[in-house]
Amino acid sequence: MASVYTMIALAGLLILWALVSARAARFSIGVPILLMLAGAVIAGGSRDTAVTGEHATTVRHLLEATLAVILFTDATEVPLHRLRKSGHLPARLLLIAFPLTVAAGFLAGRLLFPAADAWILALVAAALATSDSSLAGALVQDTRIPDRLRTAINVESGLNDGFAAPLVVFFVAGALAGGTVHPTGSVLGNTLTELAVAVPAGAIVGYTAGKLLSITRARGWSTPRSERLAYLSVAALAFATAYVLHGNGLVAAFIAGLSLRAADPQLPEDQTQLCHDVVLLLSAGVWYAFGSTLPDALSGLSWAVVAYALLSLTLVRILPVLLSLVGSDLTGPERLLLGWTGPSGLPSVILGLIALEQLTGDAATLVAALLAATVVLSVLLHGLSAKPVADWLSHHPSRPS
After folding, report:
1. Percent of the chain scored above 70 by pLDDT?
2. What is the DSSP string of 62-81?
3. What does CATH list as the number for 52-394?
């Protein structure tokens, strides 16, 4: 019965949000804030929301499927012309800043929680290294921000969760191996095999589907409606194929999206709209579920947890970005903007919840507290600061690109 009431609450909130979304946006209030608070108030701490055993496995699969659609959709949103428009910035953010951010997050965890398991600190750092540009939507959509900066933010947000997912899977495997009779090397080897299987599986599914759909579109054999359904099905097919082959479905979905875009570079943007709509609906449920965990997750809040959350959103993110931009033609304010605009949002929540479904004891308590504190602060700070930051940057002209 509790699940029925949850459905009623979630559906009612989404309808209510549709009625006031435009006015709420003026105050930088987004749907994540609403659903997170609603989950905390309505379902927070309820024993009916706890899942164990077979139900826990089902929840994990649903979370993985949600992230798979997000990864696939984000990957298809990165055409070559957008990469050219933003120049070298996405490469700097993804190939230099991202690994440095993970390393910095791990070191911050080591400093504040010296007794914690290294694998646990690493998975938290990787999960929080993802960025969710939708939390700073007002900033990304503000035309006063140079176009190449907005493009770089969107591209980074679309791809870095695909980089983080295999890291989190690997670190969770390492954490779990410590509590089993199986050698850690064997467990990690199996995880690497899963990741290796996922890459060709996703590439074959995505590239083949992209080629076939581009051909049938050119010849007039398919309709826009059927294509929209097909693109969503490609994400599901890649995820399920990897699962059957004992590979990682998340990585397969991400690779499928990249491969589909490579095979069909002229993919019309509106053809992936169904994927976006499904992501929006699924993410609403995730934010609500995340909110329901907050009372328990934050019950043991300590100064060290708060300090980690603040570091994660500031120095841990900003310093690696500044280092990655050394030698670029960006102004100081523009570099700070890219450093600040890395909010921990939906990908961090899903990766964290997937990890929590497999962890127990003190490890689960620490992961829940760190993720909850950081994401809550990020939702509030990045959402409320979007317009002031845009106003500030508009008074600092950029150099010609």
Report:
1. 86
2. HHHHHHHHHHHHHHHT--HH
3. 1.20.1530.20
